[in-house]
Amino acid sequence: EPAWFDVGEESTKVYVSGLPMDITESEFVDVMQKCGLVMRDIDSGKMKVKIYLDPQTSLPKGDALCTYIKKESVDLALNLLDGYDVRGHRITVERAKFTMKGDAYNPSLKPKKKRKKDKEKLKKIQEKLFDWRPDKMRGERSKHEKIVIVKNLFDPTMFNKDVKLILEYQQDLRDECLKCGGVKKVVIYDRHPEGVAQINFKEIEAADACVQLLNGRWFGQRKITAETWDGKTKYKMSETDEQIKARLQKWEKFLESGESAKEEQEKKEAEKRPDTKSVSEEESVNKEETKVVSSDRDKVMRDSDEDTRSSVGSDYDTDDDK
Q1: Measured distance CA(30)–CA(92) in Å, rounded
Q2: Which CATH number does the domain housing residue 186 bear?
Q3: Predicted TM-score of the model (pTM)
């Protein structure tokens, strides 16, 4: 059947010939990985290598195809593996080229372009393969151990009557867990039948302390359990459209009641304050009275001054007369 191979400098495929007839796929991969990482299939996860079989005997015929992740690996393979000895067989390595096997060329055999989703998946696989971080040391703890799951904390139906209880439970749990260390997040799964809450700590040691503190404790006449999250179980409950609508309506009522309470409080505080207008009028009257008193005082001072000047002048004239 016709087969299609990528063409051009960007291709990461190499064609290898002269291999031992009984070579296995794993042995071939070991040889090719001397020059770089071999790509894995997005769907199957298997190495993207192909050992060609004789159509008559179904046995390997000594040639194969290898797909690398990086195009730089192709150049290395051409320089280092071309002429390399594999169990007494000198292999030949070259860039994979388009070849036809059959009577006619069929352009529909050209590989389909990868979907965006497939490209993203391939990119993640490549990033993981090229990650410089070392493997986890033996005994090293996992990130999910920073998370504690508390159960039997509440009855979900209680939140149907009073939505604000969710916030109260969240704050009470946060305050208690802060005794163990830094808390990043507290989640109340208010619709979970087991009454589940999740606490994310900054450090694993704080999570360990929380388990010791809360496991077996009594909270609101309920005996709760606390355990380290297993890293897999999901506690978020799915909702129907009707449930989502009902929940949003409850939150709207809760928020509206909060606004009403705030307005009522502001109104009461305003009633307790003195009448600003009356105070202003009183201050205005006081100013007028002060102005009148000041004016009268000025008049008295002027009259007194004139009397004094007249008296002085009279005495002076009298002296002159003498």
Answers
A1: 16
A2: 3.30.70.330
A3: 0.41
Residue 53: HSE in the Cβ half-sphere, 13 Å Cα cutoff: 7
pLDDT tens, position by position, 96-136: 886 544 444 455 555 555 566 666 766 676 666 655 556 56
How many separate domains does the chain show? Answer: 2
Q: What is the share, in percent, of the chain residues with pLDDT greater than 90?
A: 44
What angle, rounded to 10 degrees, do the helices at 204-214 and 165-177 form? 110
Q: Are 57 and 7 in contact (CB under 8 A)?
A: no
Distance CA 139, CA 143 (A): 13
Give CA separation, 264 vs 114, 170, 257, in Å.
62, 27, 10
Going by their DSSP bridges, the two strands 13-17 and 225-228 should be labelled as: unpaired
The tens digit of pLDDT for each residue in 206-224 reads 999 999 999 999 988 899 9
R_g of the chain computed on alpha carbons: 45
Q: Which domain holds residue 42?
A: 13-98
Q: Tell me what the mean pLDDT of segment 74-79 comes to.
A: 93
- 114-to-66, 67, 90, 111 alpha-carbon distances in Å: 19, 16, 36, 9
301 in any annotated domain:
no
| Whether residues 90 and 159 fall in one domain | no
Q: Tokens 């002296």 identify what position?
A: 319
In this structure, are 89 and 156 located in the same domain? no
Closest of 75, 89, 70, 69 to residue 28, by C-alpha: 89
- 115 in any annotated domain: no
| Dihedral of alpha carbons 295, 301, 302, 307, sign | positive
Considering the domain architecture, whether residues 91 and 151 belong to the same structural domain is answered as no
CA–CA separation, 168 vs 164, rounded Å? 7
